[in-house]
Amino acid sequence: GAVVSQHPSWVICKSGTSVKIECRSLDFQATTMFWYRQFPKQSLMLMATSNEGSKATYEQGVEKDKFLINHASLTLSTLTVTSAHPEDSSFYICSAIAGDETQYFGPGTRLLVL
Amino acid sequence: GDSVTQMEGPVTLSEEAFLTINCTYTATGYPSLFWYVQYPGEGLQLLLKATKADDKGSNKGFEATYRKETTSFHLEKGSVQVSDSAVYFCALRRPGGYNKLIFGAGTRLAVHP
Q1: What are the chain A neighbours of B98 within 8 Å (beta carbons)?
Q2: pLDDT at B97
Q3: From the list B49, B89, B100, which residue is nearest A102 (CB)?
Q4: pLDDT for residue B31
Q5: Four-residue CA torsion sign, B22, B19, B68, B44
Q6: Chain B, 27-66: which have a CB under 8 Å from a chain A CB?
Q7: To the nearest 10°, the Cα dihedral for B46, B105, B92, B39?
Q8: Quick one: which of A34, A45, A22, A42 has its CA closest to A109?
Q9: Confidence bin at A42 (pLDDT 50/70/90)
């Protein structure tokens, strides 16, 4: 089946620094990827839709200057959390749309901001 | 708006018991329906899907049938194992909805030996 990877799997950073998370579709090309945030024991919250070659579309209430998304190729999207603060600590999950229009998810990145 | 409602968990079962996790939806048109599973500390894995009414999705002993008349997509398994312990998410994708998924709240399943 289609595989999506994320890197890093976990990251600890100091408050005020920026963190970049990569999402890759390993065996298929994806013009559309999604970024989600998941709080403990809760469902996934869609943050933004990442479209290859164009600007990301952010969901209401998500700060686009805080969460920078770049979809530079058909297999890579990146999420950069800028000037991270403790409240940004969370589990970030990406997904990619395969040719059969099924959404495949990455394993997630756990971010802890101290 | 479109939404997905799942039964509240946690669901606690003994090994080899029968599992049902209820899922109902509200949507315009004919959405596609999905079940995803999330094991501890991991992302979501697609478990099964159905794209039209009366379709049955199945995988790893799990089944779900798309029932338009009751707007339901209940997940079932005849004999659960300890390794099935996870959180299960029901989701819908609306036609023309830019592939966005709308998730239910998730149902935690704990299977004991």
Answers
A1: 32, 49
A2: 65
A3: B49
A4: 93
A5: positive
A6: 34, 36, 41-46, 49
A7: 0
A8: A22
A9: confident
